[in-house]
Amino acid sequence: MRQLRNGLGVRAAPAPVLLGVGRASHLLNCFLGIPSSVEKGVSGSWQRYFLATCLFTQCPETCLSQLARIYQLTQAPANLYSIRSSGTSGFAGKLPLMTSQPKITAELDERFSRVQYLPVDDELAGQRIDNFLVARLKGVPRTHVYKLLRKGEVRVNKGRIKAGYRLKAGDTVRVPPMKVAKKAPPKRLSHGLGRVLNEAILYEDDGMLVVNKPSGIAVHGGSGVDLGLIEALRQLRPDARYLELVHRLDRDTSGCIMVAKKRSYLRHLQQCLRDKTAGADSITKVYQALAVGSWPKSAFEVKAPLLKMELAAGRERIVKVHPEGKRSLTRFKVLQRFDGFTLLEARPVTGRTHQIRVHAQYKQCPLLGDEKYGRDDVNERMRRCGAKRLFLHASSLTFALPHDRGVITVEAPLADDLQCVVEQLQEI
Asked: Which of 205-209, 260-264, 285-289, 423-427 has the highest mean pLDDT?
């Protein structure tokens, strides 16, 4: 006999009973020996939970264990009835007689409990209404924003609009009240990280920032990341009305990254990034990377299509050279050769995910410290010499400011830990 937490006694079945949807109600009557008259007294909510658990686990004994645990946790009133076993299944015990499932109430976010009127100025003109709402309704799921737009509950100048509507200067956006669960407050920026980021600002004007991003900091929060670079900058600059990433860097990559302080700058810089030619308005990104092995002398550029793939049910992202991938081009230049390593300058012409890392692997010279595409044996050996992270650094950015205000070049020297690795290789 096996005792459950609330005192139910269940004799183990000789083998798990495989259930289908058509046998769900039959299980309650036959396997447990519950008469149809008693079955009607069981709450519909509990019955649905019971059947769903059986279908999921394909094991009635496990279902009863879970049911007993839920009942004990919810502390339902002791309004119980007994069920006697009348079949060969050997069930005898008590189930809770409940009229409904326990209700879990979440605290609502008061920011969205009333109608909001959002004005549109010249800086926001031309933006799609869906992107406008997602950026301003922080904490509201994107799916809920699109639901409001589909139902016509969002009005612009008292009229209904579609998700593709582009805002005009002087528009007034009416957002209806919403019931949105209040989320836990974001992780606070520590004094130490705030000081590091303040010192990492390489360039700033009235429309943008260039930050020397430290390695190990994701550019934005998300799954498993409490505080990203952009969230940290917003806490560092609480008076800034607008702060958005212009482009991205991998979490382990350090170096120059652009952040827009005005939407006009964001539009201009992202248009420059989309311009793949070497014209006056393009953006030139230069990286320094340490490759394992001797880089081929003729490999001045790598032109190999890259395909993004999802592994482990979407929890891991990997990129491979594949004929069905997107066109990708990286230009390489050898800066210095060492015994078993090559210091490279890399200039990505296209901006694919993990582009430099995968193109280096494609040439049989993966980057040092790359845990996804690199060589584990070399990474482990060099880790003992101080190379504890990916050797990839965005060393400079060259870009044209909007309104013909000139061309700017911003440089970020190698971090001390990477410079130390280079000095050790020079001594060998």
From this structure: 285-289
pLDDT of 267 strictly over 70: yes
Domain boundaries 191-427, corresponding CATH code = 3.30.2350.10
Residue 198, C-beta contacts closer than 8 angstroms, at least 6 positions apart? 236
pLDDT digits (tens, 9 = 90+) for 295-304: 999 999 999 9
**Hey, which bits of 49-191 come out as E strands?**
80-83, 91-96, 116-119, 155-156, 159-160, 172-175
Domains 110-175 and 191-427 share a fold: no
Contact 329, 303 (CB under 8 A): yes
Q: Which residues contact 163 (CB under 8 A, 6 or more apart)?
A: 128, 129, 130, 146, 149, 150
What lies within 8 Å, CB to CB, of 17 at 6+ separation is 27, 31, 58, 59, 60
How many other CB atoms are found less than 10 A from the CB of residue 425? 20
Contact 326, 352 (CB under 8 A): yes
122 phi and psi angles, rounded to 5 deg:
-60, -35
Least confident of 186-200, 261-275, 311-325, 368-382: 311-325
Neighbours of 193 (CB within 10 A): 17
- The residues carrying an active-site annotation are 250
**For residues 343 and 397, what is the distance between their CA atoms, to the nearest angstrom?**
19
Closest CA to 253 of 338, 326, 335, 346: 346
Q: Which CATH number fits domain 110-175: 3.10.290.10, 3.10.450.50, 3.30.450.20, 3.30.70.1520?
A: 3.10.290.10
Where along the chain do its domains lie? Answer: 2-96, 110-175, 191-427
Distance CA 144, CA 64 (A): 36
Q: DSSP secondary structure string, 41-66?
A: TS-HHHHHHHHHHHHHHS-HHHHHHH
Q: Cα torsion for 272, 276, 281, 286, to the nearest 10°?
A: 90
Asked if the model's pLDDT at residue 98 lies above 70, the reply is no
Taking CA atoms, 371 is separated from 219, 361, 374, 377, in Å, by: 19, 12, 6, 11
Residue among 308, 313, 316, 406 at smallest CA distance from 354: 308
